[in-house]
Amino acid sequence: MFILRLWNYFCGYAIIIVKGIRIERFINLAVVNGIYLWDIEKIDYTTIKAKINIKDFFKLRSIVRKTDSNIQIIEKCGMPFKIKIMKRRKWFFLGLGALLVFIYILSSYIWMIEIEGLARIDEQAIIDNLSLEGLKVGAKKNKINKREIENRMLIRMPDLTWMGIQIKGTKAFITVVEKKPEPQLIDRDEPCDIIASKDGVIDKILVLNGDGMVKDGDTVKKGQILVSGTIIRDNISERYVHSMAEVHARTWYEDVEEIPYRQIKYKKTGRTFRTYSMEIINRKLERNKKIPFENYNKSSREIYLFNFGSYVFPIKLIITRYEELVSVTKIIDEEEAKAICEKRLNARIKLQIPENAIVLNNRIEYFTNDNSLIGKIYVEVMEDIGVKVKID
Amino acid sequence: MKTKSYKIKEKISDALELPKDITLDIPKVTILGKDSITVENHKGIISYNDNQIRINTTCGILTILGEGLTIKSIIQEEIIIIGKISNIGY
């Protein structure tokens, strides 16, 4: 039966309403003449609703005449009618087909590169190097030899220990492992000197091996030899040793900051302005709109319009948001300026001082001129300034 | 109704154990649960209503009573009726 229904669907069928007094006779005659009727429903005493094959419909004419009944088509179903509708909407279906082909073609390219595992290396550097190897946005997927690119990238970028490339949909996922920086150690057997890494005054020098060249209280310059690994004694030929020493010295750090009394600050007014532009395969489509603000904060957001999980297509909507700012001038007094100055200087100087140094003295001096305050910070610290250098 | 030839046919099919619905054109009524009846070897519909269908067969008129009866399919050999069936009789 199901096969018959399927056949009828392919051939096309109609839902008809038959009216007549001798309705049972109509059904019997139809059956005898080999006309297949199905889903017969009685609507009222003289009316039935039934489904009939399109080809059989025309055979009904003689039966209709014999039984004196009235026939009416209320709906046409099945494939032939569907096709008819499709033909009428030819361009729509052609467009749909073209779109599918277009998407299929687009999905065989790479449209997004995601890099994971970066700490020190610049992402752009990796992207640049990858594009030199052929893996870039817009590259064809089947032309990419992942293993070969991985190997060549490791040669190209010596900072990398490992690289893995995975292609999913239109995205390329790149995982990298960076090389850990090795501290430059000098082997214990190698002879070396110890030199000063910066200017300072020696506070305490403890020589474990080698000849000490400076005493406590000496002022040293950057690069000066503090402990020599070349041992020269009378009557004995020169000897070279691996110097070892702890050299604690006082060093200084200083910085300057100028704070004007007239402070200009920018405040958001709450008024915003948006511009929209499209980017299709790295080509930007945008209308140049005049930004109605004099001072503004600009931020933009990129949205991939066709983003289906790992399938991303290169059509981007870029929304740029401008927030209006107004400048507010504020006159501050000396105390406030000093507070700001101190805060900034302390924050900045912290970045210069090495972590293991001990701060001995922290002093800020202020000078004023007509419209600004100048602060100078001096920090005295105690740190180890000895650095081992190989003797050639 | 039973003619001479019918009686002979019946005897032969009894003797040979042939299925009577094939040899004698006797209706075969299959009821599937409460809502589907298949009648094979029918001789046409006599009357058709929402709650009563009368089908002509070689051994009398088969009356089916019920609610919302519809003829799912009708061909020369069989009728399939669906709906809430309450009563069947000759």
UniProtKB/TrEMBL annotation, chain A:
Q: Which UniProt keywords apply?
A: Membrane, Transmembrane, Transmembrane helix
Which branch of life, at top level? Bacteria
Keyword Membrane included in the entry's annotation = yes
- The UniProt transmembrane annotation reads 91-112
**Name listed for the protein in its UniProt record:** Similar to stage IV sporulation protein
UniProtKB/TrEMBL annotation, chain B:
Q: Which domain of life is it from?
A: Bacteria
Q: Name one Pfam family in it.
A: YabP
The name this protein goes by in its record:
Sporulation protein YqfC
Q: Source taxonomy lineage?
A: Bacteria, Bacillati, Bacillota, Clostridia, Lutisporales
Q: InterPro entries this protein is in?
A: Spore_YabP/YqfC, Spore_YqfC, YabP_sf
